Amino acid sequence: MRRVWVGGLGALVVVLFAAGCGSGSSDVPTPTTGPAAPETTGSSAPAGTGRTYDAVGLDLCARTDLGPLADLSLTVERREPKQPRSAPGAACLFEMRTRSGHQASLLVEASTLGSADEAGRLYRATQDVSEMNPDGAVDGVGDEAEAFAQQSEPGFRYAEYMIHTRSGNLVLKVWLAVGGTAFTPKDVLAAKVETIVKATLSQVPES
Length: 207
Hints:
Blueprint: H1 60-63, E1 75-82, E2 89-97, E3 103-112, H2 116-129, E4 133-137, E5 144-152, E6 157-167, E7 170-180, H3 186-203
């Protein structure tokens, strides 16, 4: 079993999704919310917008727009609300199926911490432990944002892309994974994940 994230959201221990091709081939681990947030220390708060968010009670299963995924021809089989383990907030796991019968997954998670300082530590902790391959900083998303990518072959071609970002006291993560007979191109996944990240940032209310 391969862990994809640990560290809360900056967040998750994402452990990737149980994907079986329609014919029931190898499993891919299921994403779950991650461990407790890092301990608070006296370090100075990170630079940023100074905004304060509250994601508690946000229904990401209902409010996440799946329109950016339309050209992937995915059928949603299940929407599962989740609670981040890293901090108060909200999350939703979308379990989907491709036209070829392979599994696809989308995880959207928003964690709101007590301060931007705590959120910054959680964001950095996720960077330190992610086993996905760094894909560079993402400009124009929150106060700081970074992308990760991964391709694997657990009996089929499995492509993943993830962006996590911090804005004030909010740490947001969006992870998309698609199985198939060929890898979904990284730039295709990246564009879709970034669009969902930006839309989700606009959905989290400020407090």
